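REQUEST
  id: r-88c1
  op: predict_structure
  target: FAD-dependent oxidoreductase
  payload:
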Amino acid sequence: MEHIERDVVIIGAGASGLTAATDLVKAGLSVAVLEARDRVGGRLWTNDIDGATLEIGGQWVSPDQDALKETLADLGLSTYSRYRAGQNVYINAAGERSLFEGEIFPVPARTEQEMVGLIDKLDALVAEIDPDRPWAHPLARELDEISFARWLETQTDDQEARDNIGMFIAGAMLTKPAHAFSALQALLMAASAGSFSNLVDADFILDERVVGGLQQVPLLMAERLGGDVFTNQPVRTLRWGTDGVTAISDGITVTARFAILAVPPVLISRVSYEPPLPRRQHQLHQHLSMGLVIKVHAVYDTPFWREDGLSGTAFSPYQLVHEAYDNSYHGDPRGTLVGFVADENADGVFAVPAEERRERILASLATYYGEKALTPQVYYESDWGSEEWTRGAYAASFDMGGLARYGADLRAPVGPIHFSCSDMAGKGYQHVDGAIRVGHETAAAILAAR
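RESPONSE
  id: r-88c1
  status: 200
  body:
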């Protein structure tokens, strides 16, 4: 087994770990980045599927994502706007299809009033939340002891309003049922994007894409680091003490002064620690879990929905595919739709054979776009829940009461061991922007402690 020495060993070659590595090298420290997969990028993965370029993982850039935008500029990457011209589609509980423009769905006047009222209430609460310290809010414990679903019930008796507002957090972001996470966790999700209104506004949160794919960010960062990035090296054991760390992977042993675990929190326990991590770490990691979502890609001869005056944007908390968008790739004359099947709906279709799952999902897309949606040239399901080195999507979130109880310790270093990933971000939580922010902060903490 090869044995090398570095100042810092980084476990995980996603955007966060590679950002930290880049900063450390710029400051004159030596690094080794150990990645379990045969590729870099983590939850960023741009791939060719049957001749179509698809973003298997994260892909969008929003206007407030300064850390990501600075990185794109540094790497010389350009962006293009998501197609959004035309009308959007909404389907209600009765299965009735309506077209609309703007942010508020075409619902009865009272439901619209209730939805606007809920958005205003959530925006007011979010304005009081520091995304880096949500547990510091005076009502943090109270908000963390009530599910988001129950909180919505205390605010309105309008079921459709609750279903729609709940969808923006439960289905679209945390990918867990609204009864499974707290109101405080929902507020953190909104605060991380600046406001709940930003999450409601698809034109804001899903503004741009990167020419060539978002995985170019970690690919280019890894290229700059050169021979300091090692793939196919899952770390099995991490020995640590006051004098530093030793990381043992399948083919390399790295001795270093510091370690950065740049992996989703649910994978931290995959490593054996000598000595074991403190009790607090053992406990808090048991209160974090990943969401579950299928990202469905359907590529067609042409973007036929545009001919019908549709933007490609579609929503319904009552459909198997709760949201979908025009996801056509830059420079490709074909049209691509991307749709999402989350939490318990994903459970349901994963219980049936693959061909039946495909039929159900395409039938749901056809409810929005018509029968042409039933026959794509290319069909692909991104299933991060089956990825050994991710185990869910889009990010880990706390169970009821966990954020107020353990949130402050989530990124606390343990001796020479630091933690860095998008799941631990405040601003930019569960996005690559947050991964980059935390990577910068983790590198700064190590440089301050050296």
